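Help needed: design a sequence for this.
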């Protein structure tokens, strides 16, 4: 099971389909219709909950506690971060002379994965996380030294509309260390 605005939802739904197991995905109300339809198309049961991803995650955690389902977090898990790192490897493979990589930053998993992979192979490359001004959870969280949830968000970029960044100290360190 998962919670996602759509991209992670589709990946989890497809993986469950390939494994022949049932999947349930919690999505925020207003998630893009094509992403919802694709997720259902891969066989997932989709449940809408709340306005933001954080609301869907809360419902997913409750569902997991109630049913024993395994929650595959969309960004705050070491395996997800490692998988996201493959994007960094592809960037280095396709553009070996890259000097700066801009990474859309929602919860921080993609940024952490890309930064770890890129910096491990090319410490000279700058990795910069970017956020939509109306959904920028990281600046306040970095200033406070802890995850600080946003009160509200406004962005058309649903995949990065995450109002509370990762909470894991190991990923928070990996993410903030990319500011070179």
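Sure. Designed sequence:
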């Amino acid at each position: 099971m998962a919670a996602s605005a759509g991209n992670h939802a589709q990946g989890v739904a497809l993986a469950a389909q390939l494994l022949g197991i049932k999947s349930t995905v919690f999505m925020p109300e207003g998630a893009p219709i094509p992403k919802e339809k694709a997720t259902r198309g891969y066989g997932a049961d989709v449940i809408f909950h709340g306005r933001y991803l954080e609301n869907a995650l809360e419902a997913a955690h409750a569902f997991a506690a109630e049913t024993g389902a395994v929650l595959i977090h969309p960004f705050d898990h070491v395996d997800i971060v490692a998988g996201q790192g493959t994007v960094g490897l592809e960037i280095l493979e396709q553009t070996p002379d890259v000097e700066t990589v801009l990474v859309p930053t929602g919860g921080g998993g993609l940024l952490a994965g890309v930064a770890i992979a890129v910096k491990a192979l090319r410490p000279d490359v700058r990795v910069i996380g970017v956020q939509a001004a109306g959904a920028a959870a990281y600046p306040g969280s970095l200033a406070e030294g802890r995850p600080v949830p946003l009160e509200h968000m406004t962005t058309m970029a649903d995949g990065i509309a995450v109002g509370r960044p990762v909470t894991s100290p190991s990923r928070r360190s990996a993410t903030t260390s990319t500011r070179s």
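The CA atoms of residues 28 and 163 lie 12 Å apart.
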